[in-house]
Design brief:
- It is elongated and about 65 Å long.
- Helices cover 2% and strands 39% of the residues.
- Strand 19 (137-139) and strand 20 (144-147) form a beta hairpin.
- The strands form seven sheets. An eight-stranded mixed beta sheet has the order 2-5-8-11-14-17-19-20, with no helix packed on it. The protein has a five-stranded parallel beta sheet with strand order 4-7-10-13-16, with no helix packed on it.
- It has one helix at 280-286; strands at residues 7-8, 18-19, 24-25, 30-31, 36-37, 42-43, 48-49, 54-55, 60-61, 65-67, 72-73, 78-79, 96-98, 103-104, 109-110, 115-116, 121-122, 127-128, 137-139, 144-147, 156-159, 161-165, 168-172, 184-189, 197-202, 207-213, 216-223, 230-237, 242-246, 251-255, 262-267, 276-277.
Length: 287
């Protein structure tokens, strides 16, 4: 069903999809079946929309946006595809992926190049600057993780609260912000270059990493949401207000320690050598 006051130039529209008044769909766009494209939506050429997607009024989907099946986009949510926009200076667009079943609240802003995980929930008015883990709830500006499903296995950035005045800066983490209760804390420091640490996974232990000083690189291998295919992600930790939550069953590698790097690690259980998986082939088999 296409409203007579909509402009739909694409021929790739799935069966059962409804496109309402004043929407404009450019010819290169792909829209799946049983979608609901509400009044005043603009969809650019290089956009792919899955099945059963709802896009509420006043949303623009720019080149590079990918919405998987069963995604909900609330009224006036804003997508972007250029980190450094300038008038009449075209840059390569960054792809933004919203995975299956995720919901984006009204007036949220999604920065370019992020991945919003399966069944994640973005609070109304949030500004999403980093990837969002599957099953998590984020809110605020910048968006911080309010809750993460313990059943999901994807790492997630969690921002600490920051306070600053003429006396200096403070970064604070409420334990309720984490999807686990920390029972053990340790610090990694004075790591000689070019040492590599970790190179293991945990069967049951959750961890949260914060680089209190300097910078390090964290590489993880695990599963994306409920998919069985292995994935590999790299994170740069160089800000004491920007932490990384690592659930169990993620192979983790710590490298590129700066001379002044100090890494704070919180863990969900006491040290248990039997919880470690130190052989990568064994890890892949378990995964």
């Amino acid at each position: 069903m296409i409203h007579p006051m909509a402009i739909v130039e694409s021929l790739d529209i799935g069966e059962g999809t409804r496109i309402w008044a004043f929407a404009h769909v450019l010819p290169g766009a792909v829209i799946g079946a049983d979608c609901n494209i509400c009044d005043g939506v603009f969809i650019e050429n290089d956009v792919i929309v899955g099945d059963r997607v709802t896009v509420k009024c006043g949303v623009q989907l720019w080149d590079g946006v990918r919405l998987e099946d069963d995604v909900f986009v609330g009224p006036n949510a804003t997508f972007t595809n250029d980190k450094y926009p300038r008038s009449k200076q075209q840059r390569q667009e960054l792809f933004t992926h919203v995975r299956r079943g995720a919901s984006i609240g009204a007036n949220a802003t999604i920065l370019p190049g992020v991945v919003i995980g399966e069944e994640a929930m973005i609070g109304a008015g949030s500004v999403v600057t980093h990837d969002v883990a599957p099953g998590s709830v984020v809110a605020g500006n910048p968006a911080r993780t309010m809750r993460v499903s313990a059943q999901k296995v994807s790492p997630a950035r969690i921002l600490l609260r920051r306070a600053a005045d003429e006396r200096g800066s403070l970064a604070a983490l409420e334990h309720e912000d984490l999807p686990f209760l920390p029972v053990r804390t340790f610090i990694i420091y004075s790591v000689p270059v070019p040492s590599v640490r970790a190179q293991h996974a945990h069967l049951n232990c959750h961890q949260f990493l914060v680089c209190a000083s300097g910078e390090i690189t964290v590489e993880t291998v695990g599963r994306a949401g409920d998919h069985s295919s292995a994935w590999r992600r790299t994170y740069q930790l160089d800000d004491p207000t920007d932490g990384l939550y690592i659930p169990p069953m993620n192979w983790t590698i710590l490298s590129d320690f700066s001379d002044d790097a100090v890494l704070l690690v919180m863990a969900s259980q006491p040290y248990d050598p039997d919880d470690y998986i130190r052989d990568y082939e064994e890890f892949k088999a378990l995964l």
